[in-house]
Model the fold of this input.
Amino acid sequence: MRRGRIPPPEAFTWEDAFHIAVGILCLPVGAIILYRTLSIAVAPPAILVGGGFIAFGVYRLYTAWTRLRLYRQIKGAKKQ
Amino acid sequence: MADKNTPAPAEQVELRRDVTVWGSYMWGYADVGADVFVALGLVFAAAQGAAPLAFALAGLVYIMIGLAYTELAATYPVAGGGQYFTLRGLGDLWGLVAGSALLLDYTIDIALFAVASTGYLNGFVNLVFGFNITDISMKLGPLNIQIVWLLETLLLIVFLIWLNVRGIRESSLFNELVGIVGIASEAAIVVMGFLLAWDPGMLLHQWVVEAPTLDRFMYGSSLAIISFVGLESISQAAQETRRPATIVPRTSISLVFTVFIFAVAFSTLSMGVVPWQEFVGQEDEAVALVANRIPYLGLIAGPVAAALGALILAISANSGVMSASRLTYSMSRYHLISTWFDKVHARYRTPARTIVFFSLIGVLELVFSFLTPGVMDTLGNMYAFGATLGYTLVFIALIRLRFSDPYSPRPYKMPLNFKWQHSGRKVDVPILGFIGMLGVLTILFEVVLTHEIGRIAGPAWVLLCFAYYVWYRRSQKLPIGTIKRDWETEQVHVLTSAEEYEMLEEYKEALAERDKGGR
Done:
């Protein structure tokens, strides 16, 4: 039983901007960790953390993008 | 319905619902954020070059614990956390065992995090003014007591008691303010550390060459689990959270990932910045040690990390005071301990008696630990036993409640379930619940094997609580076993007070359907 409890976005908020900033920051950090590690050897902890940063960054950006799209749809529907 | 002679939970005045989404998250973060500051050094000293692996394995188990707590706290949003879930799923005796195990952790939490907070504060003074307060000691026969450090810690605990007696609004606000600074600063240390100081060559060297022995690794990975009381705090605060069924799943799942990312990132960063041997003897300032190695920023980052550690550990100790008092409040309501603890302060509407009483137990543990050679070692050693025992019982209760109470709406369910026909109804059996239970049992096994103080003090504490329970139940002419309770009426009351009307309707419909079909 799951409900759509989180209300749809009514505005582009500071929280969304924060999520985008975090996502953008995580991607280069993860890429640098992976690049520097893999240029020496395969180290599981570093790959886990580097990959984790990239995955988290992608997830944050995806969430922000989805909310932005929903917000545009709602805004468009209101105009019509 | 309940027996006519059944003692109803005393509830003259209820706890206020004052905690918001951010407040709920911060109660959990108070433990989560601080854990890195305490656990990092302790785990590195034990698990050596495999410390990140120890954090990752314990973190995986934690994710499953987190999901179990998320389901239970959203379904039963009342004070009590793991103790309440176990009581409801497995009965009074097991509820007492879980409650006493978690209570041990909370009282240690108060002492351990308060002492670590003042330890970081002293580290800050040392870095800035070059004066080491922890060196000031007093000879007492063969003992050498760090008296100023002890007095500082006692003062901090008294302040936290006052804060919590005054009410959740004030202490939640305190957590929130410090937590924001904490999250931002920890994230900055991780990012700047990886960009400027991290050496993958050092990480590889320690990973390959400095592997620990099996028993050291077991000790390290069982210490890593001490990080995991944060979600218990959220469920403790569930009775004071606005719209808990909405808020608790959101904050819990966010916290699960915050914990995992910070724990694994900090340990991986540390292994590429500082040789593990340097953490030995400096467990109480591990994060400051790492921050101090960041080029250009280290001169400022070291003292800032020490000050941040002091602040964030103080909010964790505060979280311990809050959680211990809510847990005992719940235990007294269900007659596991005296109803004397059940009284809520008439003016502030906080469980003032439990706050003072169990914080004082934390003070006693603190004083005793100062009589041993390693203050933090002694407290940390006992910490894991209570958590692992309590979490094991929570997993069993989660599985049992899926069968015994399929009617309560679950706003969140642990993923990966299979259907099972039980008493004419299909029940979702949680596969992750079983895996999580095995994971926690493994860590409990490690604790019993490797924690010299914990394996004695932990069971002794639980036995002491059990002896008190037997005495109390007999004095009240109550059965030692489970008291029959009207959980259905209570669930209606809980959902009504939480203003979860949609869930309430769903619950009533499920009960009506069951009654129509015959029990």
User: Anything to note?
Assistant: The longest strand of chain B covers residues 417-422. Residues 92-129 of chain B form the longest helix (38 residues). The two ends of chain B are 13 Å apart (CA to CA). DSSP finds 18 helices and four strands in chain B.
